[in-house]
């Protein structure tokens, strides 16, 4: 896979805190960005403002003090900052400003989607740190032609935003509308933050073509967009560390 950073028109020197929102591949994308950054010699802190699956190959610490983080970065180069609060996931801890001070890059997962390919956020989400330099909204193309009530997280909000019912099917126009909406993919994105979209799950020629059409609509609206898919061994980022 070519470089995700350049594919999303992101610069590691300018976009030092990147928050991922949406559904359909956030966590895999987060770890792919982290891998590219490490390959470029950057120190990286991975964290979340909600919950995240910890990567088994990355050192995890719940201590967000400067001394502990500096020591962990010196030793490992990349650190996941969070505390286990459920069986399989962790919640964020510490201060994003401190993370930014100590590391070259901070990658943040800003909401959850419970494995659905498409979502509209609830009132309390996403949680985008004000220190964010860029926000990536992710959507899964497997939502296409699926009933809203079946393929979407917070389906009632998706239906309300689109003016549809839970039985209606998701179209290409719907995905673009959700990603561009200030109640959808752009929710909480400040004017100082770069905004990018990633259309994931383009794992067939048909989905690649449909993703390209959606991307053209997003780019016409001024949003750099990448269309891609991850193979099975890449999902969750486990083959990268």
From TrEMBL:
Origin superkingdom: Bacteria
Which InterPro entries does the UniProt entry name for this protein?
Mur-like_cat_sf, YqeC
Example GO molecular function: ATP binding
- Report TM segments: none
Q: What is this protein called?
A: Selenium-dependent hydroxylase accessory protein YqeC
Q: What is the lineage of its organism?
A: Bacteria, Bacillati, Bacillota, Clostridia, Eubacteriales
Gene name in the database record: yqeC
């Amino acid at each position: 896979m070519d470089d995700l950073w350049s594919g999303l028109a992101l610069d590691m020197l300018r976009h030092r805190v990147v928050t991922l929102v949406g559904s359909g591949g956030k966590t895999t994308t987060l770890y792919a960005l982290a891998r590219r950054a490490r390959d470029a010699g950057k120190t990286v802190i991975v964290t979340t403002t909600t919950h995240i699956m910890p990567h088994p190959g990355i050192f995890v610490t719940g201590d967000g003090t400067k001394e502990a983080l500096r020591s962990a970065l010196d030793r490992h180069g990349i650190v996941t900052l969070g505390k286990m609060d459920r069986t399989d996931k962790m919640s964020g801890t510490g201060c994003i400003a401190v993370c930014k001070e100590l590391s070259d890059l901070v990658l943040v997962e800003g909401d959850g989607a419970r494995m659905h390919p498409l979502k509209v956020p609830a009132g309390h989400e996403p949680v985008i740190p004000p220190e964010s330099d860029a926000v990536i909204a992710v959507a899964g193309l497997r939502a296409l032609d699926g009933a809203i009530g079946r393929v979407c997280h917070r389906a009632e909000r998706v239906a309300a935003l689109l003016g549809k019912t839970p039985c209606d099917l998701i179209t290409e126009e719907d995905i673009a509308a959700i990603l561009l909406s200030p109640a959808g993919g752009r929710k909480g994105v400040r004017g100082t933050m770069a905004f990018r979209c990633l259309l994931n799950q383009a794992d067939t020629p048909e989905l690649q073509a449909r993703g390209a059409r959606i991307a053209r609509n997003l780019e016409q609206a001024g949003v750099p967009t990448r269309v891609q898919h991850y193979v099975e061994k890449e999902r969750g980022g486990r083959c990268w560390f």
